[in-house]
Design goal:
This protein has three helices and two strands. By secondary structure, the chain is mainly alpha-helical. A hairpin with a 6-residue loop joins strand 1 (about 50) and strand 2 (about 55). The chain is elongated, with a radius of gyration of 34 Å.
Length: about 100
Amino acid sequence: MSRRRPRGEGDGPEQLPLPAPPAAPKARRRIAPAPEQAAKAYIARRAKPSVVPANVKLTFTLDLKRALAERLSAQAIREKKNLEAVIIELLDSACP
């Protein structure tokens, strides 16, 4: 026959004390890079090499109002250029 324990203290299994959780590491403040550095990193990740040595290819979608798209397209047709060339010229003249 098995021995019975006296009731009281030892009713359940003995609980061992758990070690204290480690102190949470202090959060490091991230220093925001200068806009020029951030732009270089973004283009390095996102752009692809172009056939033209000093250029890169950036692909994105423009969501334009129909009237603006038609005006840009008409301008491209008048100048005998493609729509992308017209948009590139506009962007180039807006950003010195």
